[in-house]
Amino acid sequence: MAMVRAxxxxxxxxxxxxxxxxxxxxxxxxxxxxxxxxxxxxxVDVKTFxxxxxxxxxxxxxxxxxxxxRVVRVLxxxxxxxxxxxxxxxxxxxxxxxxxxxxxxxxxxxxxxxAGNGHTDRVAYEDPDQVERAGRGxxxxxxxxxxxxxxxxxxxxxxxxxGFDYDFSDVASDVRRHLLTDSRGSGxxxxxxxEGQDFSPEMLRSLVAxxxxxxxxxxxxxxxxxxYGKGHSWRxxxxxxxxxxxxxxxxxxxxxxxxxxxxxxxxMDHFREEADLVEPTLPAAAGAKPALVQCxxxxxxxxxxxxxxxxxxxxxxxxxLLRHRRDDLKAVREALPTExxxxxxxxxxxxxxxxxxxxxxxxxxxxEFDSTILPFCGAEALPDPSIVEAFGHDEALARDGKLLxxxxxxxxxxxxxxxxxxxxxxxxxxxxxxxxxRV
Length: 439
Hints:
Helix 8 (171-181) runs parallel beside helix 9. The chain starts with a helix and ends with a strand. It contains 14 helices and 13 strands. The chain is α/β, with parallel strands linked by helices. It has 3 domains: 2-66 and 169-237, P-loop containing nucleotide triphosphate hydrolases (Rossmann fold), CATH 3.40.50; 79-164; 256-438, Rossmann fold (3-Layer(aba) Sandwich), CATH 3.40.50. It has a 7-stranded parallel sheet with strand order 9-10-8-11-12-7-13, with helices on one face. Strand 5, helix 9 and strand 6 form a beta-alpha-beta unit.
């Protein structure tokens, strides 16, 4: 749908036609969209947000000769975790435990939220009446916010000292500042945002700033799949929806049986705060019920998943999707009898024909496959214990519930969910939703 909209907006024969940016959050989706883009669409660029942002910021530097043409550097991954840990250690010396006893994952998330919402003003952040922390409630008292912001500022000092300009959470604010003060604009007349539910408010504001007055911004989103934060109002991100919001309720991807499971998941308690959830109509296409398979142990689970994926890949696309990339992905990949395509940010080409894909729920956002297999969906693994430790049980249910929803809704005709022990509480218990078996 996003590609169709981009094609319409870029039509050179129409009065509204102009250069169009189709922007996504994750690299795998951008790779897929570039693969299916018709060759004649010369006026449509498909990019991830960060590819667009870094290209714009790097281009501005080269054009002005600032920073001696130095490449824009972004702190990410383990290096960012280490820098945050050092900032926490520096600020916590001689202080009480709270909030310094929280896991690094919590600090990463809080810094992402601060930068992603543009709340980098200390006075506002420290006042709960000015800055409401959706999803965090009153867990941070005023004095805890003060200490948290001390760590945030120390982190930025350390990051700058290491020669890094940004991390991925605060690039958007600088993009917006450039676009609001630079008459050259973004080079695009129209912006189409796909999977918009995963963009931070600052990302959306920067994309609104990227469209000229005679252009447009189109956002496609499904808040049931939101996995990078809580919702926000249209007005708060600069979107004027006075001309209406179109609600797309036809489900063209999933079979009736898979869609029934997804709708049942969306009705569970951890989705109860999603006011923007639009319930789609059930598709007419019938298929097999999702299979819920209990395995005796992890080894048996891996063998079953690999055997079943190999069988299904003879006639269609199969995705093995996991909560974790490292250990779980490595274990499954090594047991597969055939080579699998890894869904990750290094993807540059999208392969065609029947095959096995393997990746995380995050990496599969916006994609679809004939069959999807979701291993390791036991109660001991989902919700993720590290998420429970960092944010509490209820928040972990909400976060991982949406992730699992993403995995379930990637399947067009066949869905297999495996587990050891008891199945995850993120799945509905109604017995008529599944075909149950044991291996």
